[in-house]
Task: structure prediction
Amino acid sequence: MNLNQKFKTIDDFKKSLQTHTLHVSVIGIGRIGLPTALSFADSGLHTTGIDINTNLVKMINSGDFPLKDEPGYDVIFNKVNNKQFFATADIKAALEQTDIVLLSLPTPMDNANVPDYTALKSVAKQLHDLMKEGTLVIVESTVEPSFVETDLIPIIEGTDKKFVVDKNFLIGVCPETANPGEILKDFKKLPRLVGATSEMTTSIIMDLYHHVFPVDLLKMPDCKSANAVKLTTNVFRDVNIAFINELSLLFEKLGIDTFKVLEAAKTKYNFQIHYPGAGVGGPCLPVNSYQMLNIAKKYTNDFKIVRISRQVNEYMPDHVMDLIEDGFTNAQKSLQGSTIVVLGISYKPNVKDVQLSPAEKIIEKLTYRKAIVKVYDPYYKSEKVFGLTVDDDLSTAVTQADAMVLVTAHDEFRDIELSFLVSKMKKTPVIVDSRGVMDDHAAKKAGAIFRGLGRVIS
Ligand SMILES: NC(=O)c1ccc[n+]([C@@H]2O[C@H](COP(=O)([O-])OP(=O)(O)OC[C@H]3O[C@@H](n4cnc5c(N)ncnc54)[C@H](O)[C@@H]3O)[C@@H](O)[C@H]2O)c1
Result:
């Protein structure tokens, strides 16, 4: 047994927490890792953010907060940066000082939708080579159940058994569940899950997170159960959205407005509302479903619902194309050579993030059909995204356009004055709303042809 003096007993740990003598390092200071590191620093603990992105490290060290769409964290950043919190790309030097390592590394998937744990595995190897004996490792990244036990721990231990879990290092998980754009709010209210390889490690992690976050902590029996909860909540959403997407395809044919059905359905106490849309993107939901499928296939060939839900959600950009085409047929126009403005490219409203966004698929399909595609998104003004330069003004973007297609329901699009925009567009423009936020009557009154995903064509 060769544990850090500060973790020898729970009392030792509590003392080191209160006296702020612990040094925490967060490896991966992106969307989730940076706010996490800032919260640890704000609780009084010496915190280092470690990242291979040297530009990000430079930006942070020069006092420029990179997450402009995370309200509240700019204030915490200004308070702790270069005081309790430092960023570095030098993992070796940082780990020499570190008692507790948090891993907030990306867990994306490859082009074949297979989870890609390269970052976690390569950092695990660095931990084996560089961390101090007795270090506590906490995995915040989203991984499939049993990945920590079967993959990560063996890499940290190494074939030379330089490290042995629960003997000379500790490990547990606290999967991150915050929503981009609302991380500070979520960190103050969402319960966290804690699992570890021993009772003692679980207690230490619970004490640590209680010190930093004012939220309930759910104690899970082990790492894999905590990771299973994280995946279950997100896959639940992916599957339910797929169900509503499939219903909306049927309801469109039946002349039933899905949004009206949902508003009424939600009055039933045990109905949980999910909305149809152009597709499900982002770094979490699609990836988490594929993580679940990845672990399931090791045990069964018959894990159906998640797979089919993915198929339905991945089909939705094609359905948006069908709606666009239907609108163009009605307007007696051809897609080829027409100017179509895509409104919103983020994968979800009110955040600056285009990872796995359905907008990319729709833009690709429109370009393939030789339409002239323009893009407006308030979060990407003048930036180049998906090969296009994003317009910096909505009314300029739609001027003389043949169509506009709303893909992301940013708040700005909820207050659109359709009659004004339609007056700027070509005669009889086509408007497609894939998120149920536009007023179809106002569009039609202004002289546009309107198609809405899950809506009635009238
Ligand atoms: N973004 C979300 O909505 C969200 C929500 C909950 C959980 N998560 C999970 O949190 C984890 C992190 O996600 P994120 O969105 O913050 O990712 P991100 O891509 O925003 O940040 C990851 C950071 O890790 C750095 N990095 C990559 N490889 C590295 C390495 N070898 N060494 C050091 N740094 C390295 C990158 O440069 C980047 O800054 C993922 O597992 C994700 O599934 C994300």
